[in-house]
Design a protein that fits this description.
Blueprint: H1 2-10, E1 37-39, H2 47-55, H3 70-73, H4 88-100, H5 108-113, E2 124-126, H6 135-144, E3 149-154, H7 157-171, H8 182-189, H9 192-195, H10 200-208, E4 216-220, H11 221-226, H12 228-239, H13 267-276, H14 278-287, H15 295-298, H16 303-314
Parallel strand pairs: 1-2, 1-3, 3-4
């Protein structure tokens, strides 16, 4: 069995699909060890869905763990389930990652070699924790991997934070709290592990300072809920894969995270949380565009209210064409 696994690893891989924008860069040898892309968040915005869509797609070899957490935690994390270990490629990756986690600091060359098992297939690192990386570290990564594609999943900050709180309580990461007490909820929202992940406009701004525009894409949780097939197609085309090939038996509509139990979210608490995030909702609408343009209106932040706030900020009279 061991020999068969080794033979499968050594056998030439099917070439990846290329796009016309950068065809030369997309032709890599089987020994080209580096990630093709990073998905840098956001947590609770669709990254697990993305991992499974790519993991079962024939144009990809994905790492045997979804979140590597190398740039934020040097891969020193307690995992809730054992990693995949199906063949020699998986074992190679896991051995290298274990060795890498003993290093005292970031080693980008060693990190690059984690991806040797992908051969000529596409592969990448999907770790929502990278949404919290500093400018300095982002610049180091982009300089080392200048053709790296970067994906960010954006979600309404109110809904995203509530989903994170639900997960953290479910996993025991935070103590249960009174979800009907708005003041208590706001206090929990300000804990560092939640607060630092709750500002997608800032995350996008940091990464866009260093990643070339043609290599950076924002996708929206709204589109995952509305039209997952189209979202899957757009992402696969961006990554240079064939959207017409299936992801094994996984269809685009399968999103197991959506089935997990959530904390009860009353209308009053939702309104208070929205007020807490009002500035971020406005920033997302302006800077992220797309479905984010409609987020403020979900919570009653109407054109009139926003116009008054803008005029107050600018201290001039102007017209604002706010799409709701």
């Amino acid at each position: 069995m061991e020999n068969n696994a080794a033979m499968r690893w050594a056998w030439p891989f099917k070439p990846r699909v290329t796009d016309d924008r950068n065809e030369e860069d997309n032709h890599h040898s089987a020994g080209d060890a580096r990630p093709d892309f990073l998905c840098v968040g956001a947590q609770k915005a669709g990254t697990s869905w993305l991992y499974y869509q790519l993991n079962w797609h024939v144009d990809f070899w994905m790492p045997p763990v979804k979140e590597l957490h190398y740039f934020d935690k040097l891969s020193r994390v307690k995992r809730t389930r054992p990693p995949r270990c199906n063949d020699a490629r998986d074992r190679c990756f896991l051995e290298k990652m274990t060795a890498l986690s003993t290093h005292s600091g970031i080693d980008l060359d060693a990190y690059s070699r984690l991806f040797e098992p992908k051969g000529a297939l596409l592969s990448g690192d999907i770790t929502p924790g990278y949404s919290t990386l500093s400018d300095e570290l982002i610049e180091r990564v982009v300089v080392r991997f200048p053709n790296l594609k970067v994906i960010f999943f954006a979600r309404d900050p109110v809904e995203r934070a509530w989903s994170q709180l639900s997960m953290d309580v479910r996993l025991g990461n935070i103590s249960p709290f009174d979800v009907t007490d708005a003041d208590e909820v706001i206090r929990v929202l300000q804990t560092p592990t939640v607060f630092v992940r709750s500002y997608p406009s800032q995350t996008v701004a940091r990464w866009k300072r260093y990643v070339r525009p043609e290599l950076f894409r924002i996708y929206f949780f709204d589109d995952l809920e509305k039209n997952p097939m189209e979202l899957r197609r757009e992402i696969l085309l961006f990554l240079g894969a064939d959207p017409n090939r299936p992801s094994g038996r996984i269809n685009a509509e399968q999103n197991w995270d959506a089935l997990k139990e959530k904390l009860r979210f009353t209308d009053y608490v939702r309104s208070r949380v929205a007020q807490f995030f009002v500035e971020e909702l406005k920033a997302c609408a302006t800077e992220l565009g797309g479905p984010a343009k409609h987020w403020p209106a979900r919570y009653g932040f109407s054109l009139l209210v926003l116009l008054v706030q803008v005029l107050d900020d600018l201290d001039i009279f102007c017209w604002v064409d706010w799409i709701t």
